[in-house]
Amino acid sequence: MAEIRVKKVEQGQTKIRNVPIAVTPEGFWCCPSPVMFQKNLKTQHPLNKPRSSSSPPTKNPSDHRKHSQELEKKPSRASSKSETIVTDDQINNGFEPPVLGAALVAERTAIRPPNAENLPRKVSIEFGEPGTGDLKVVLFGKQGFIVKLSVHKVVVEENSTFFAQKLLAKHPSFQCIEIDDCEDVETYVETVGLMYCKDLKQRLIKQSVSRVLRILKVAEQLGFKTCMESCLDFLEAVPWVGEEEEERVVSSVLRLQSEGIGVSPILKRVASDVSKPVKDTLSHVLQLVLKSNEEKGRREMKSVVLKLLRENNNNKSNPNSSLLTSVGICNDTIYTSCMACLDSLLVLFRQVAQPEFSEHLFEVKDPVVKQMVLEADNLSWLLDILAERHAADEYAVMWASQQELAGLHPRVPIVNRHHISCITARLFVGIGRGEILSSKDTRHLLLKTWFQPLIDDYSWLQHGCKSFDRKVVEEGIGRTILTLPLEDQQIVMLGWLSSFLKAGDNCPNLQKAFEVWWRRTFVRPYTEPTNSQPLD
């Protein structure tokens, strides 16, 4: 049955033409794709080309008939084969062929209908010396593309378990193997050609990762173990560019685990055998960033870590996502760092609040002040991380309970202390946006403890903090106040009104929140319904 199908490929009057073979700098002979094959046939038949717009609109009918008769009388010529011949003596003496000593011949019918592009394209490839192949391998690709390979049984049987099993099940005189639905004919031909190559590693050098993955897939189908091992060595040694390419490599390698192929060196790039807890690694990363004094590197890595943790948080619904998506592991580590920074900040405030601190030399004061600013910035960054993860509720409780730190606030110069008011402002923004769901008592305590220090530092926040957005902060403060019971709203609003009438633009402008409170109090007072008796 196999011989019959091959005869169908060869039947009919054919005209042999040379098909260009693409030779890469690395030495691969590439079977042309169906598109290239189609283009080659089109260029050889100018009659199939559409008429140019510059041609005359009419033509003499007698000239047309004369031209057609000349074409019919013109005999078809067979061009010479383009082939590379390598003898057995050359191979035994160490001569290395390019990869395929191959003759590539295109076959087509002599007379083609108008829609000839849809007919099967047929290509023949011969390995080794012409006429020495004792096995035909016919590949049926997509869109009717057919490739006939002339190979040697001893070569393919030695390198491929697939061909070995096929030949074992057939009669010794069996001469043809057909492979239907071949997805990647070009890579299939290339992989078969690698069976004739002595040094596969050299042939893979400078190839793209995607190309080697295609070769690996075909080698796996053919049971070409030597090629599979060479492809894995290549993938282990080269960099993978981009997440998409990394995922393709890992998925291809994982598929080979069950076949006993050594894939561990490749998987070690993406998976560690060390049983070190993820919590310890995350804590180490955070500590390195928190303790850094180099402004540029610190600023960039803060942005990178925040972005990566945000991605982990967005992928927590994916079962294959990172271990950092575990809320307990990540949040506990962050809160531990928060407490350490807060303890350090409190110690520094106590030191700076001492009356004699101002009398010290600049060399003594400057490191203390810089460390205080650094710890305040660390707390702001950790708050951003927790707010992104919707886990800043405990942070609000922790900050609202810092009465000692708030008491030391007025005794520290405003140029040094205003950084901690950024933390208060960020909490108000989070509560106002619904990102931080604090209890009523926590919100009231936060306003009671930190609202007045925020008012005192407001002028410095506007001019000394680049990331400070006045409108956003004022909206957050107003919304936070309006979440309190009406009696507490009144206390806070009257206190703010007194400060605003004194400081003006150096105080948060809460007029919108004031108007809402006013209407709730005087215009639309809500009264609980009483159990009144209906009128008779």
Largest sheet: 6 strands, mixed
Mean pLDDT: 77
Q: Based on Cα principal axes, name the global outline.
A: elongated
Radius of gyration, CA atoms, in whole angstroms = 39 Å
Unreliable parts: 1-116
Distance between the termini: 104 Å
Number of domains: 3
Give the strand order of the largest sheet, numbering strands 1, 2, ... along the chain: 1-4-5-7-6-8
Q: Please state the oligomeric state of the protein chains shown.
A: single chain
State the helicity in percent bands: 55-70%
* Coarse structural class: alpha/beta
Number of helices: 24
- In total, the number of strands is 8
Give keywords:
536 residues; alpha/beta; 3 domains; six-stranded mixed beta sheet; 24 helices; 7% strand; disordered N terminus
Task: Describe what you observe in this structure.
By secondary structure, the protein is of the alpha/beta class. It folds into 3 domains: 119-196, no CATH class; 208-273, no CATH class; 278-313 and 324-523. The chain is built from 24 helices and 8 strands. The strands form 2 sheets. Strands 1-4-5-7-6-8 form a 6-stranded mixed β-sheet, with helices on both faces. A two-stranded antiparallel ribbon has the order 2-3. Helix 5 (153-159) packs across helix 6 and helix 15 runs antiparallel to helix 16.
